[in-house]
Amino acid sequence: MSSIPFPRGSDPALGLRTLVIGAGAAGSALVRDLHRAPEFGLAPVGVLDDDPAKAGREIDGIAVLGTLAQLTDLAVEHRAQVVALAIPGLPHHRVRELATAAAAAGAAVRYLPSFLAALRREVVGSDMRTLDVNRLIGRHEVHVVSPDVRAVIEGRRVLVTGAGGSIGSELCRQVHAFDPSALYMLDHDESNLHRLQLEIWGEALLTDDSLVIADIRDRPRIQQIFRDLKPEVVFHAAAHKHLPLLERHPSEAVKSNVLGTDNLVEAALDTGVERFVLISTDKAADPTSVLGASKRLAELIVQANARDARNLGTGVFSAVRFGNVLGSRGSLLSVLEEQLRSGSPVTITHPDVTRFFMTIEEAVGLVLEAGRMAEGGEVFVLDMGEPVRIVDLVHNFAEQVQLGAEDVEIRYTGLRAGEKLNEALFSEGEERLPTAHARILATVAGGSAGPEDLAGGLTGLYEAAAVNADAEVRDRLADLLPGYRAPEADPVPALSAPYPDGF
């Protein structure tokens, strides 16, 4: 594709290439505001409108390129990374159609009027995605997903596990935009599935095969689903993920995160799945928690079977590691917003604790790109720059919702068992490999149990978890993952509030 010049005020260094939908008052105001507030991270490259007579006009130097019906084609042509919907009062079904068209071009979607209010400093805490994300995560948001993903999904039967969760539901919405022949959404929570079907299709009759109620721990049920539905692409997002709970209930972590993954991988191999992507966590790198250990074992299961599949010339199995995802259910921002709204103290484990953060758009884009780029056995990681001090993120968040330091009380609780002061994206023994995407790295991760040791060790681990022998489960996790040891409780004691060098 030939290089497209940037319109006036659209230096790509200022942010993501953005198409604005709507050439009326709201859209015009948005274009002007984006030019005045480049630190927000969006650079307008064109405007679309439902009135064809407006084509060819300019708004603050940005051309009206065409109509809404041309959204997908124009987003691809102009390499749009974000589509901002700026037509107030647009019917819900039209919003859904435009969001689908944007996703088909590999673009994320932002909305007005709340988005415009954010630029005018009228942010409300409940509107997470109106915040200046670049300031919160300490770097520019990265556009990850490309239109080339369509070749992996279009016309294929796709299964998403954990479909009702934050990542799973966003995956389903974006996969749907790439025209799979079937989209199967698997979750054990029927209410989440009902809500998701309503969001994607505008109705939820609950009478077709797209919704699958199942527990990934149930091996016969998973085998039945794969035999009957014959998925060709699988995105595995189902997991337990709350670190402190899993420290207290390690058998449950093993049943869902390890055995559940094993069940899915076995069924995928048996039925000839073309591509399988596991969603993991940065806590799997040199794990110190049950959560990290269970997800590291899930990665090893995928990698061991990827070698077998590669030798047989069958499916491609890979994994992705996430940092903390902003905007997901139970994420830091949602908890922080609730605490500020209620007037409760903001709880932080330690003043020096850091984490890697990413947006839901980045997370889902990483999953889709991993499915496209994988050759088998890789663990993909988004290059997220430097980790962010959580206390700095709280500070930035408070400023954006118009709160001063005196309005925020911070209470330090101390690191909990299994938590690290600083996370890492790779284990010490893992090699960082470049990929076709400049901001995505990969590793083939070694240094843990080999395939034979892994298979034998997993049998004993599953047997211990089945009878809820938590102490034995911890010991067997340590046997399977040299270097992992169950941490002592309260590794860093709680600190008094306010901390001397805090907010």
TrEMBL record:
Question: Coiled-coil segments, which residues?
Answer: none
Q: Where is the Polysaccharide biosynthesis protein CapD-like domain?
A: 158-442
Do you know which InterPro entries this protein is assigned to?
Answer: NAD(P)-bd_dom_sf, Polysac_CapD-like, Polysaccharide_Synthase-Rel
Would you tell me the protein name for this molecule? Nucleoside-diphosphate sugar epimerase/dehydratase
What family does the Swiss-Prot or TrEMBL record give for this protein?
A: Belongs to the polysaccharide synthase family.
User: Which species expresses this protein natively?
Assistant: Kitasatospora camelliae
Q: Which residues cross the membrane?
A: none
